[in-house]
Design brief:
- With 314 residues, the protein is α/β, with parallel strands linked by helices.
- The protein has a domain of 192 residues: 3-Layer(aba) Sandwich (Rossmann fold), CATH 3.40.50.720.
- The relative contact order is 0.13.
- Helix 3 packs parallel to helix 4 and helix 5 crosses helix 7.
- The protein contains 10 helices and 13 strands.
- It has a 7-stranded parallel β-sheet with strand order 3-2-1-4-5-6-11, sandwiched between helices. It has a two-stranded parallel sheet with strand order 7-10. It has a two-stranded parallel ribbon with strand order 8-13.
Length: 314
């Protein structure tokens, strides 16, 4: 059985207040680690402190605007976990280049300078095939951390599901108000949704497994589903019937163009570009199995947190 005892070891987590980050914090706290949660807004990390004993989980402020700031935060760490990522750009410091490429490079350099024992970098599945700005900057980030910290372990999860996800929950909410769902590009894009807890456990298992150093792991669930399959599965969970209408790529791009004026657009042109590439684990890739984790099925998790009656369809 894998030894996951991190008592007395400091693990610094970037992006710990996000959807995946909070589960990583839970797993690390259970393993006894002292955790520094790096954030721009320290009050937003206070809820994480309940996952550990007093003083075990410490929010640390960073503006993410200089290599020296990142260097100072990482100093004294046994391990660093980076799960920062954005889907939509917002201003000068919340853009793909800075979050996905520049910041990971700063972290990798600091990890090398301070002899940090382990560095786990969370990337994304399919970025070596996609032409979206999101994917390109994510891939450049991978290459940067590999250059400056060759022993990095890179995890590439597919779209993640879990209680607070912005995937199944979002579409379930839309099903309340929309009479139909658009199938962008015909809904043929394939995904391999993975349970967020499985990804969080992968981080801890990778930290404990020296053989994971220098490798990329592609993390997907037990099923490959098209976007159309996902819609149909979701509608079955929530007991609703909605029309699924194919939408050509060019129509979706026109909609995204006008949505761009919104503060937080529900669809962007870059996301449409991402949807033109499948999001599934390569046949020869290392994955959850190699990290000692059995993938959790969607049917075992999603119906329980959507909390909709399923006896009668409307």
């Amino acid at each position: 059985m894998m030894n996951t005892d991190f008592r007395g070891k400091v693990v610094t987590v970037f992006g710990g207040t996000g959807f995946l980050g909070r589960y990583i914090i839970d797993e690390l706290a259970s393993a006894g680690a002292v955790i520094k949660v790096v954030t721009r807004h320290t009050p937003s990390a206070y809820f994480l402190r309940t996952a550990g004993s007093p003083g075990q989980i410490v929010p640390v402020y960073s503006a993410y605007d200089s290599p020296s700031d990142i260097d100072q935060i990482i100093q004294g760490s046994y391990a660093v976990v980076n799960c920062l990522g954005i889907l939509i750009e917002h201003g000068k410091r919340a853009n793909f280049d800075h979050i996905h490429t520049e910041l990971p490079a700063w972290m990798a350099k600091a990890c090398t300078a301070h002899n940090v024992q382990r560095f786990i970098h969370i990337s994304a599945l399919g970025i070596d095939q996609s032409q979206s700005a999101y994917a390109i900057t994510k891939l450049l980030g991978e290459r940067a951390v590999q250059e400056f910290y060759p022993a990095v372990t890179i995890l590439r999860p597919s779209v993640m599901f879990g209680t607070e996800d912005h995937f199944f929950n979002r579409f379930a909410q839309l099903a309340k108000i929309l009479p139909f769902f658009p199938l962008i590009g015909g809904g043929k894009t394939r995904f391999q949704p993975v349970y967020v807890v499985d990804v969080a456990k992968s981080v801890v298992h990778a930290l404990c497994d020296i053989h994971s150093c220098g490798h990329i792991f592609e993390l997907g669930g037990p099923e490959i589903l098209t976007f159309k399959d996902i819609y149909q599965r979701l509608l079955g969970y929530i007991g609703k019937s909605r029309r699924l209408i194919p939408m050509p790529w060019w129509v979706a791009r026109i909609q995204a163009f006008f949505m761009a004026i919104l503060p937080c657009p529900p669809l962007t042109n870059d996301q449409i570009t991402s949807l033109q590439t499948d999001n599934i684990v390569a046949q020869d890739a290392y994955g959850l199995k190699e990290l000692g984790i059995s993938a959790t099925a969607i049917d075992n998790i999603v119906p329980h947190y959507l909390n909709y009656p399923t006896a009668k369809k409307d």
